[in-house]
Amino acid sequence: MSDATPPTTAIGTRRARTSAASRLVTLTAVLVPTLGVLSAAGILWGVAFRPVDAVLFAVFYVLPGLGITVGFHRLFSHKSFKSGPVVRGTLAILGSMTLQGPVTQWVTDHRRHHAMSDKPGDPHSPHGHRDGLWGGLAGLWHSHMGWLFTTKGMERDRVYGKDLYDDPLIRWIDRLYFVWVALSLGIPFAVGYIVGGGSLALGFEAFVWAGLVRIFLFDHITWSVNSICHSFGRRDYDTSDESRNVAVLAIPTMGEAWHNNHHAFPGSAVHGLGRRQIDISAGVIRLLEKAGLVWDVKRPTEERLARRARTA
Predict the structure, then answer these.
(1) Helices 103-115 and 158-165, interaxial angle, to 10°?
(2) Contacts of 7 (CB under 8 A, 6+ apart)
């Protein structure tokens, strides 16, 4: 792998630890949505949850969520299909609107996770921390949230991200990351304000539900793939790690909770490999494929599935 520096922009930097700036941004991204949930529960719950709030919540949960599951994960991290710049750019922007970090940071952390899954060096494994009940709980905490303050962003360099740093479109979207964050919170406020006839209160209400509460729920659902799906659930395929399938999380994660399937076939655009395994993200990719917007979609053959399936 070449270490040549792209000619037009600085490349990422491998760090010995998560930077102070990253910890501050992460703390803000974790605490502010939490305050939004407390606000909704203590001030708005049962009083102010209008149809526009429900529609905005659903739209902003699903579309930026697909930016993570279809874009950051299946396209950028694993290259499970190909697309043109419009689809790539749209997915990268939508994924950035979840407040889970810029594309290059998310992808390089995730590729490191697969390279060292549940072994020393995995940035968010729940295993290998301490023994006993408290050790297990400490591992779950680390894999769910703790890693965001200790190991997040350490691998943001060309070892795991050369293709991204060589892509001018991705570098441009990364540079504007806080613009996408602002839009993720500002659009719900603006729509609530307009639909509410210029009411700041209704704008704030939409901002809380479709901005803060939505980010809180989606982020914790995403983090549960790191924690729960490496600790509990079914193992349908032999892998070298502790990845698990957790059916109850399949719909809210839009297919990401078929995690043992994913670790068995990381290049597959489809994670729900069983007949009754709902995978919303794979369905979206299929629709995009039929529309001619994506191509070279990778799916494991029946022979490969049978060869990797667990026999007991």
Answers:
(1) 140
(2) none
State both tokens at 272: 């729900």
- 44 bridge partner residues: none
pTM (predicted TM-score):
0.86
Alpha carbon distance 281, 69 (integer Å): 6
**What are the CA-CA distances from residue 211 to residues 29, 52, 219, 285 (Å)?**
12, 13, 12, 26
C-alpha to C-alpha distances, 234 to 84, 104, 143, 261, 298, nearest whole angstrom: 36, 31, 19, 10, 24
What spatial distance separates the first Cα and last Cα of the chain, rounded to whole Å?
40
Residue 98 near residue 142 (C-beta atoms within 8 A):
no
CA nearest to 16, candidates 195, 140, 150, 119: 150
CA–CA dist 259, 225 (Å, integer):
7
Give, as one character, the DSSP assignment of residue 5: P
For 234, the 3-state DSSP assignment is strand
CB 74 within 8 A of CB 281: yes
**SS3 assignment, position 31:** helix
Phi/psi of residue 234, nearest 5 degrees? -90, 150
Side chain identity, residue 76: F
Q: Is residue 207 a contact partner of residue 39, using CB atoms and an 8 Å limit?
A: no
Q: Where are the domains of the chain?
A: 32-235
Residue 143 backbone phi and psi in degrees, to 5: -70, -25
Q: CA geometry: angle at 110 spanning 120 and 225, to 5°?
A: 90
Q: What pLDDT, in 10s, does the model give residues 228-260?
A: 999 999 999 999 999 999 999 999 999 999 999
Collapsed DSSP state (helix, strand, coil) of residue 82: strand
Q: Over the stretch 50-97, which tens digit does the pLDDT of each residue have?
A: 889 899 999 999 999 999 999 999 999 999 999 999 999 999 999 999
